[in-house]
Amino acid sequence: MLTFHRRIGDRHLLRFSFSDRSDGDTRKASFQFQDGKAPIFPHQVHGSDVSIVTEWGAHNKRECDALITKAAAVPIGIRVADCVPIAMYGSSPDGPVLAVVHAGWRGIRAGVVAKVAEHLGQFGCGGLRAIVGPHISVEEYEFGSKDLSRVVGALGEKVAGRTKDGKPALNLRAAVEVTLERNSVSLDHLLDRCTAQDLRYWSHRSRGDEERFALVGEIRLL
């Protein structure tokens, strides 16, 4: 599990963790976060809906692709196996606010990143930043011309590319970078790891894996 820490003020520490194969399939009930507390995961639908989490609970039936919390000790997560896991955070007058985002091509086109940025702004957050996790690279992501044209129409030519075999491809990394920039979110860190090439991660697109790794975020009190 690869973990990033970001200190916010004198009282709060943000923790963002990206699991991998060695941590197990995050869809199983046996998956635990680092301190033994099960994260809250939504039922992801490849859309742009966002849900606010105010307290920890073992059962969660939220249908959305992004979770936001400003509550301490409430781990929230999303699951991926080629799509882009994004942690977004900022500081509000009441303290830090963090979000975890499942950004597939449909969600990106639907505006999930923009909606998260809007919600964080409504909390009074300034200086929004993002950490982008492992996802499928353009070299491995062959994409239908019709759908590619739609994404290019929304985000620009930068998101179009070619696979290693020269076929039309979607550049998810570029799509995320364009979307973050449009919504005034600074890129804090990019994990440049391709899920189709790096065997530490599962890939549904290239290997048909049914398992999922996760991004989990949590606010901790110092």
Structure overview:
The chain is α+β, with helices and mostly antiparallel strands and 222 residues long. The chain has a single domain (2-135, 190-221), classed as CNF1/YfiH-like putative cysteine hydrolases, CATH 3.60.140. Helix content is 19%, strand content 32%. The chain has five helices and twelve strands. The protein has helices spanning 105-110, 112-122, 145-155, 172-182, 204-207; strands spanning 2-8, 12-18, 50-53, 66-69, 76-80, 84-92, 95-103, 126-132, 160-162, 168-170, 186-190, 213-221. The protein has a six-stranded mixed sheet with strand order 3-4-7-6-8-11. A hairpin with a 3-residue loop joins strand 1 and strand 2 (12-18). The longest helix is centred in the middle third of the chain and has 11 residues, at 112-122. The chain is globular, with a radius of gyration of 17 Å. The model has no long low-confidence stretch (mean pLDDT 92).
Q: Write the CATH architecture name.
A: 4-Layer Sandwich
Strand percentage lies at 25-35%
Would you tell me the overall average pLDDT?
92
**What pattern of helices and strands is seen along the backbone?**
EEEEEEEHHEHEEHEHE
The count of helical stretches stands at: 5
Task: Give the helix proportion (percent range).
Answer: 10-25%
The rounded Rg comes to 17 Å
The largest sheet is:
6 strands, mixed
The SS-based structural class is alpha+beta
Straight-line N-to-C gap: 22 Å
Total domain count? 1
Q: What overall geometry do the principal axes of the alpha carbons give? A: globular
Uncertain regions spanning at least 5 consecutive residues: none
Strand order, sheet with most strands: 3-4-7-6-8-11
- Specify the CATH homologous superfamily: CNF1/YfiH-like putative cysteine hydrolases
CATH topology: CNF1/YfiH-like putative cysteine hydrolases
Total number of strands? 12
CATH class: Alpha Beta
